[in-house]
Amino acid sequence: MSLESVRAFFSKNAPDIEIIEMKASTATVTQAAEAHGVEPGRIAKTLSLRVGERNFLVVTRGDVRLDNRKVKATFGGKASMLDMEQVHSLTGHPVGGVCPFGLATPLPVYCDISLKAFSEVVPAAGSIHAAVRICPERMASLVGADWVDVCQPPPPAQS
């Protein structure tokens, strides 16, 4: 069902974007990077968070962690991760396949500026076996996301 809601989203809003389905699981950043042949930073992970009574999504590059101080300053309180049941109920997507597209419930979406380091990122597409390749700015535009700075700096590039 979740993959279908993402298909419907792209069919209506961006029919030129192709959903890539894989046999292997892409539920983790490491698995997704391996399957898509990209470095982990290019995997756009979607975090489901709550501050107070507000639920929202933050899309970050795959190789960074949230900076709790920045999160608190940006969203006005300490953030907690939603549990698997809450994530599925609110997004319609399973953990590992969560993305900002085709959501079951309208949720505010934020994209971390760390994504701007890449011309193309690979977010999930509503399933642990599906993803898309998309420009971060286009992704933010399609889902009405605001840009925020809530992550720790990425690790140094490996040579």
Tag the structure with descriptive keywords.
single chain; 159 residues; alpha/beta; YbaK protein; six-stranded mixed β-sheet; two-stranded antiparallel sheet; 8 strands; 20% strand; globular
Can you put this structure into words, describing what you see?
The protein is an alpha/beta fold and about 160 residues long. The chain has a single domain, classed as Alpha-Beta Complex (YbaK protein), CATH 3.90.960. Helix content is about 30%, strand content about 20%. It has 5 helices and 8 strands. Strands 2, 3, 4, 5, 6 and 8 form a 6-stranded mixed β-sheet that branches. A two-stranded antiparallel ribbon has the order 1-7. Strand 2 (about 45-50) and strand 3 (about 55-60) form a beta hairpin. The longest helix is centred in the N-terminal third of the chain and has 12 residues, at about 1-15. It is globular and about 40 Å long.
Q: What would CATH call the class?
A: Alpha Beta
CATH topology name: YbaK protein
User: Kindly, what is the distance between the CA atoms of the first and last residues, rounded to a whole number of angstroms?
Assistant: 41 Å
- Overall strand count: 8
Main sheet: strands, sense, barrel: 6 strands, mixed
Instruction: Give unreliable regions as ranges.
Output: none
The coarse silhouette is: globular
| Annotation field: number of helices | 5
Q: Give Rg in angstroms.
A: 14 Å
CATH architecture: Alpha-Beta Complex
Helix coverage percent = 25-40%
